[in-house]
User: Which sequence fits this backbone?
């Protein structure tokens, strides 16, 4: 497993906040073992925004939910690896310590704001509950803080809206409430699990801008899960591309878009619509389907869909190599790929 | 225009879920009828004994010996000991309704706890609790009561406990199924991700979402509890004479059924009307809280 270990090191922001090493999560289902994460490694520095991209089922969400041990168990189980948050292995602490970190130092924004708020609790109660879980405030102070937070995420007349129920908010406003909840205890790391996917495009842009400005203002590190490379380009410092439970490529955002070195990354970039493309150009989809994660795969997981694939790809999993400073890729033919050659 | 849009946001009517449910409930005639009947019944049993010139065990020596028919002094007649039937009926209603209500509350608490723990934790906890529930459901109630009644006579508190213990299982199963569904909802995951512990997840996040079905079940449990209490008293296992309940009034009237039917009909009718009214209210609540348009 050591061979696939990738590290993004030394980004502009400074101290190492989170380091995930060889994380392996499996789901023990009735049909067999699903290898959702096959030893992924990455790190996040203070104030950094790391984007994790990949298609549905590539393990993006499992990868970050594993950090807070939020995997449904059974059937899910983290079977190996380390998750070092400021030097403490989150896989080794007890439930009580874990609960103080959840929503405290690390908080999560979920994908669908329509379902992530409790429909029968007033919004204010949901925010203050989280505040009082982690901080020693009176209910009046917590309420004031909740109102301040709602104001900060751009909800008009925040003090009034504390007494509203979630159904009285629109989708974008609910996502703002979720963000306010996530921010409520000044986290050092926010995990945003596709927070804009369920929103329409104009609201998406607003939420991205909001998170970006809050991040700049508060200096919070963000892990942004997405399958939208357009959003990622606007937001991230570094990008990790996931495929079939592996991180296949990792690089600073400009580097990745300018010089992708993994065939899958190229496929992803090619499948985006472009403003400067000729009108009748068809989008290039990646042929084939992602592999079934049931059971062990031999060789490179992407090989069956890869135009560069050779014998070695089908036999041995490629190790991660550094092709440029802070740009790592797990591909046998990365030189060919980044040179833009076709086999 | 900015003013307009802001106004539109804050001026939206604050219609909470509860308020809408109440509104829907009062649109249903049968439910409202049931509700009015229950309120009237409650008022009568609370106020009635204070207005009656007789205590429940006062004997009128003018009519003692055999049951007397209705008269200006005794509106529903009197029993063989010269006690006023109406006073005993109202006083008995007090006991029956109290035991029924308390039994239902107890059953609901037990049912909610068992169901919540079972549905939330799943696994072996669930297996054990649900097998316990199955066992309780499989106990043949009446034979067991007859057996128990040979051993001892319960006081009101024990009686409530017995009534509660015999009817909590339905609620437990219902709550469990609700929890099994609700625990998978994303807001539970979100609350967990923000540091909520199991107790908080169960009772603050999940339980309020199941409050509709639980209210309905609790209401219907009141009906079953009243029925059960009456059955127990009728079989001589409930509250003991001379304290009247609807059940033991029926019991003592049964030996005079052919000669003095006016003693048996009112308590029977009271049980019937109360249980019917409770069920109407329960059905109304079900429709009001789970609208399926």
Assistant:
């Amino acid at each position: 497993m050591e061979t696939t270990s990738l590290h993004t090191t030394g980004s502009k922001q400074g101290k190492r906040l989170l380091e995930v090493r060889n994380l392996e999560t499996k789901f023990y289902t009735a049909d067999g073992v699903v290898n959702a994460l096959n030893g992924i490694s990455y790190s996040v520095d203070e104030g950094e925004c790391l984007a994790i991209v990949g298609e549905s089922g590539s393990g993006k969400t499992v990868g970050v939910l594993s950090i807070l041990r939020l995997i449904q168990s059974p059937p899910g189980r983290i079977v190996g690896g380390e998750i070092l948050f400021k030097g403490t292995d989150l896989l080794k602490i007890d439930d009580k310590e874990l609960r103080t970190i959840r929503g405290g130092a690390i908080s999560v924004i979920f994908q669908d704001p329509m379902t992530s708020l409790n429909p029968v609790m007033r919004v204010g109660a949901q925010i203050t509950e989280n505040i009082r879980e982690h901080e020693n405030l009176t209910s009046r102070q917590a309420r004031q803080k909740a109102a301040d937070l709602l104001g900060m995420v751009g909800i008009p007349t925040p003090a009034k809206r504390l007494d509203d129920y979630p159904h009285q908010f629109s989708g974008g406003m609910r996502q703002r409430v979720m963000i306010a909840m996530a921010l409520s205890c000044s986290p050092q790391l926010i995990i945003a699990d596709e927070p804009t996917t369920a929103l329409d495009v104009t609201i998406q842009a607003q939420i991205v801008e909001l998170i970006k400005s809050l991040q700049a203002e508060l200096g919070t590190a963000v892990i942004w899960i997405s399958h939208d490379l357009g959003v990622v380009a606007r937001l991230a410092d570094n990008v990790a591309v996931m495929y079939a439970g592996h991180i296949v490529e990792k690089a600073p955002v400009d580097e990745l878009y300018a010089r992708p070195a993994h065939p899958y990354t190229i496929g992803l970039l090619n499948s985006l619509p472009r403003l400067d493309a000729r009108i009748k150009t068809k989008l290039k989809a990646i042929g084939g389907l992602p592999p079934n994660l049931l059971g062990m795969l031999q060789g490179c997981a992407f090989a069956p869909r890869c135009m560069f694939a050779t014998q070695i790809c089908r036999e041995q999993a490629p190790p991660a190599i550094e092709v440029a400073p802070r740009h790592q890729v797990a591909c046998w033919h990365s030189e060919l790929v980044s040179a833009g050659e076709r086999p | 225009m900015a003013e307009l849009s802001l106004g539109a946001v804050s001026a939206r009517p604050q219609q909470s879920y509860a308020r809408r449910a109440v509104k829907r409930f009062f649109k249903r005639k049968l439910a409202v009828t049931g509700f009015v009947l229950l309120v009237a019944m409650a008022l009568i049993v609370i106020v009635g004994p204070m207005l009656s010139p007789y205590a429940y065990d006062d004997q009128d020596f003018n009519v003692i010996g055999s049951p007397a028919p209705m008269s200006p002094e005794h509106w529903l007649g009197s029993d063989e000991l010269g006690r006023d039937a109406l006073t005993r009926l109202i006083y008995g209603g007090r006991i029956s309704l109290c035991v029924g209500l308390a039994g239902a509350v107890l059953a609901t608490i037990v049912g909610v706890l068992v169901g919540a723990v079972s549905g939330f934790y799943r696994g072996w906890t669930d297996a054990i609790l649900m097998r316990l529930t199955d066992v309780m459901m499989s106990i043949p109630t009446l034979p067991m009561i007859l057996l128990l009644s040979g051993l001892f006579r319960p006081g009101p508190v024990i009686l409530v406990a017995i009534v509660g213990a015999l009817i909590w299982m339905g609620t437990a199963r219902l709550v469990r199924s609700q929890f099994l569904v609700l625990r998978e909802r994303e807001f539970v995951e979100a609350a967990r991700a923000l540091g909520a512990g199991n107790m908080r997840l169960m009772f603050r996040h999940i339980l309020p979402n199941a409050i509709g079905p639980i209210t309905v079940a609790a209401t219907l449990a009141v009906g079953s509890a009243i029925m059960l209490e009456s059955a127990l008293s009728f079989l001589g296992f409930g509250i003991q004479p001379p304290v009247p309940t609807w059940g033991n009034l029926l019991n003592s009237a049964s030996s005079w059924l052919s000669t003095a039917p006016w003693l048996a009909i009112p308590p029977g009718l009271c049980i019937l009307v109360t249980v019917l009214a409770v069920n109407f209210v329960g059905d109304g609540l079900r429709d009001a809280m789970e609208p399926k348009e």
Observations:
- The domain at 18-289 of chain B is CATH 1.10.3720.10 (MetI-like fold).
- Residues 1-13 of chain B have pLDDT under 50 and may be disordered.
- DSSP finds 13 helices and no strands in chain B.
- Chain B touches chain A through 26 residues (CB under 8 Å).
